[in-house]
Amino acid sequence: MRKLHRAASLCVAAAVTLTACAAGSGRDAGPSGPAAAPGADESFTLTVWSNYSGRELAEVTKALESFKAKYPKAEIRHEGSQDDDKITAGIRGGNPPDVAMSFTTDNIGQFCSSGSFQELKPYIERDRVDLGQITEAVRSYSEYKGNRCAMPLLSDVYGLYYNKALLAEAGITAPPRTTAELLDFAKRTTKRAPDGSIEVAGFLPTMMFYANRPPIWAPHFGAEWTGPDGKSSLATPAWAEMLEFQKQLVDFYGYDDLERFRAGLGQEFSTDHAFHRGRIAMMIDGEYRTAFLADQAPEVDFGTAPFPTSRPELYGTAFTAGSIMGIPKGAKNPGAAWELIKHLSFDTGTIVDLANAIKNVPSTRAALADPRLEVDENFRTFVELARSDKLRGNPVTPIGDAHIKAVGDFATSWQAGKVDDLTAGLREVDRRIDEQIAKSGK
């Protein structure tokens, strides 16, 4: 099951040394130009690693097999359950796949800056690929400082999910549009047992639980990760407003009561997910949740909408991330690997079929507009957000997800009442992030 917003745990030091450690018989794109594409009748084998499993593994394999319409003698070996750690180990050990698919964009800065994923610019220029086919926010999270070392494979867009019955019981007829309304509606839809314990939480604010991650939240408050000088800029009113909003909800529930409630909730990608069970009335999540609800909790009557924002003019803003594909350093057949990546990135039929199969948002403008794309009322919210100019991509740094973890850890302490001075605390997080980036040498 997909966890695209999950933080991967690559070691920065290991990533920096990937270029030196990698080996293989394939020729990377270099001074002599990109590796040649295979002939139409040429026989070749491509190994693809991804972290897909189960039904999604089978559907992605179908998408890979569609490549044979152009290269009928190609053999594609798709190995699932391969996370970023395994990809890194394969590159360092000199046994990488030809194509590596990563569920998280958190590590794109490491992959690009270390050379562990080959630069794709020579291929793009040779084949005159129009990157404008891909939405701007999606392009932003698949490159680092002008080095495009990956291409997107569909995308995830995040919005508000709400339980229609629970809102109706509280006399609420439409989803919240502002964070002030979200706070009010969360209080009104919360239910407590006679002993005061939480039975239903109107909205669960616990950072790093389910999809409550800093990059997903930040756009709705207009919070930026860096300032004009490129340094971390968390000690700003927007970040403070976001954290103070969360703390208001934590204080409403009571931190200890909230922790006891959260401890009894199901895992994010299990049938016991709290929203599936009617334990939370509203949440932030990606478009893929529509498929999980249809499969695991078809009895839940829910709606989707853009996530509430701190200011009305921000409404319609959304966070996006997604799977990415790259050619690892030392890949044995980089020329054919690029042809496969190009096919998966731009063939509209393949993109639409895969989007319909695993309920992810297409990453090209043509696929978003294709009439074959299956769009019901709830999925339409995410397609419309993906088409807008308010979409925001994942912050890319050479330290992987360390900056996200730093904010998440701080937010957890803040919610627990362990931070006396919010602004001073954010300044300290800024300092630590800048220090880590400086030490990375990138």
From TrEMBL:
Pfam families: SBP_bac_8. One of its GO terms (biological process) is maltodextrin transmembrane transport. GO terms for molecular function: maltose binding. It comes from the Bacteria. Keywords: Signal, Transport. Belongs to the bacterial solute-binding protein 1 family. This is Extracellular solute-binding protein. It comes from Saccharothrix syringae (Nocardiopsis syringae).
